[in-house]
Design brief:
The protein folds into four domains: about 5-80, DnaA, N-terminal domain (GMP Synthetase, Chain A, domain 3, 2-Layer Sandwich), CATH 3.30.300.180; about 130-290, 3-Layer(aba) Sandwich (Rossmann fold); about 295-360, Helicase, Ruva Protein, domain 3 (Orthogonal Bundle); about 370-460, Chromosomal Replication Initiator Protein Dnaa, Chain: A, CATH 1.10.1750. It contains 20 helices and eight strands. β1 and β2 form a beta hairpin. The strands form two sheets. The chain has a five-stranded parallel sheet with strand order 5-6-7-4-8, with helices on both faces. By secondary structure, it is an alpha/beta fold. α7 (about 195-205) runs antiparallel to α8 (about 210-225).
């Protein structure tokens, strides 16, 4: 009997056997392979020695009856042989299946953890690293957040991410949580908004029945974890008792080698009434800043949104939106959503003309960059711009340099790192110059006058 014919014949016999034999025997039948059929004898091989013995001992009569019926040969019978090659093949296949099952179990566990985390902590599934558009304004914050996600408590602890509202602080923070849940599901992650932490603390501290036990449960809730993500820490100002408890939470986690990630709209030292103890703890790790994205990054953000939403669009329309909505990503996404909604309702493609009609943005004058600020400042102080951006010293040059640095930060809202690159200085030097002018502008009439007149020349007053 040819191989193809033998295979078809065996499939017919096997189907009949499955219909006759008990279900608990089926797992021994499926792996059987026919190796020959001659003079009414069907030889099958198996890699399961136990299966061979069981079928021979308990079911050979039933199997032979099936074969006799199909072949119409009263002498037809089975011969079941154990084959070591088949056993090795079966072992490899079993190991492969077990590996896949193990991987599937881990994935399912991660998904279950993620689902539980979402329910408990309000994590937003769209806030993942792969959904974050990285630009010059955010590449350092992105890199450090990814490093924390990959190696919690190993490099930057605590990680303090600060910047104005709507720039992606919460996105990066929650991305750390999602990355951990997917890639290291054994670690316990907790995301909490500062307002929720405050309300939770107040609720437990004011309960009249067994307050000690309630507070003990509260503290365990926030310390029996591996990574804590605390959003918008600036809202804790003036909450003295809550700050004391947060210090306990911080110390407990830090001393156990757990990762702490915090976001804020400003630096710790700029949060009024924040205790010196908490301020020093927040500053002991790494502080990274998020600033407004540049036009190119804003375009990439809404381009990604358009592709994900499968919106028919003109790139010029997206560039128009990116050019006019620059304060933060949330405002940018809102403008894009508004235009998309109008396009959907009117069943029109998202064109430049449509975007202009819907948003009615005023055309802006040429944007002010670092170089323009430095040039106008140099002209005001009657010094060379190369002296300001170079290494020249002298009281007048130093003042012009400090004033221009302060204005670069205030007018463009770009990061100290970006400003440092333009001036070819360390970002700590740039921060020092900025803070110096900021501290003196209200008491030094010469500085306040210079700032006012330079801003007028730049047409930002």
């Amino acid at each position: 009997m040819e191989n193809i014919e033998l295979k078809r014949f065996w499939e017919q016999v096997k189907e009949e056997l499955i219909g006759v034999l008990p279900e608990n025997v089926h797992p021994w039948i499926y792996p059987l392979e026919a190796s020959g059929f001659d003079k009414g004898v069907l030889t099958v091989v198996t890699g399961q020695m136990m299966g061979r013995d069981l079928l021979r001992r308990k079911h050979s009569a039933q199997m032979n009856e099936v074969l006799k019926k199909i072949t119409s040969d009263s002498n037809a019978r089975f011969v079941i042989i154990y084959d070591e090659n088949a056993a090795r093949t079966l072992k490899k296949e079993t190991e492969k299946i077990q590996k896949k099952a193990s991987e599937k179990d881990l994935k399912e566990q991660a998904m279950e953890n993620l689902s539980n985390m979402q329910s408990a902590s309000n994590l937003n599934l769209k806030y993942k690293f792969e959904n974050f558009v990285v630009g010059e304004n955010s590449k350092f914050a992105y890199a450090t957040s990814m490093a924390v996600a990959k190696q919690p408590a190993q490099k930057y602890n605590p990680l303090f991410i600060y910047g104005n509202s709507g720039l992606g602080k919460t996105h990066l923070m929650q991305a750390i949580g999602h990355y951990t849940i997917f890639n290291n599901p054994k670690l316990r992650v907790k995301y909490t908004k500062t307002e929720d932490y405050i309300n939770d603390y107040i609720s437990n501290s004011r309960k009249t029945n067994n307050t000690v036990e309630n507070m003990s449960k509260f503290n365990k809730k926030y310390t029996n974890i591996d990574i804590i993500l605390i959003d918008d820490i600036q809202f804790i100002e003036s909450k003295i008792k809550t700050m004391d408890n947060l210090q306990y939470t911080f110390d407990s986690l830090y001393n156990k080698g757990k990762q702490i990630v915090i976001t804020s709209d400003r630096l710790p030292k700029d949060i009024p009434t924040l205790t010196a103890a908490l301020c020093s703890r927040f500053e002991m790790g790494l502080m990274v800043e998020l600033t407004p994205p540049d036009s190119e990054t804003r375009f990439e953000i809404i381009k990604k949104l358009a592709v994900e939403a499968d919106v028919v669009h003109e790139d010029e329309a997206l560039k128009y939106i990116a050019r006019h909505f620059k304060n933060n990503v949330r405002e940018l996404e809102g403008a894009f959503t508004k235009v998309c909604a109008y396009a959907e309702i009117t069943e029109e493609p998202l064109t430049l003309e449509l975007a202009k009609n819907v948003l009615k943005c005023k055309e802006e004058v040429e944007p002010i960059d670092f170089e323009k600020i430095a040039m106008v400042t140099a002209s005001y102080y009657d010094v060379d711009i190369n002296d300001i951006t170079g290494t020249a010293r002298g009281q007048k040059v130093s003042m012009a340099r400090h004033i221009s640095i302060y204005l670069c930060r205030e007018i463009t809202n770009q990061s100290f790192v970006s400003i440092a690159e333009f001036y070819d200085k360390k970002h700590t030097t740039i921060m020092f110059a900025y803070e110096k002018i900021k501290k003196e502008l209200n008491t030094n009439r010469e500085i306040s006058t210079a700032l006012r007149e330079i801003k007028m020349a730049l047409k930002v007053l």
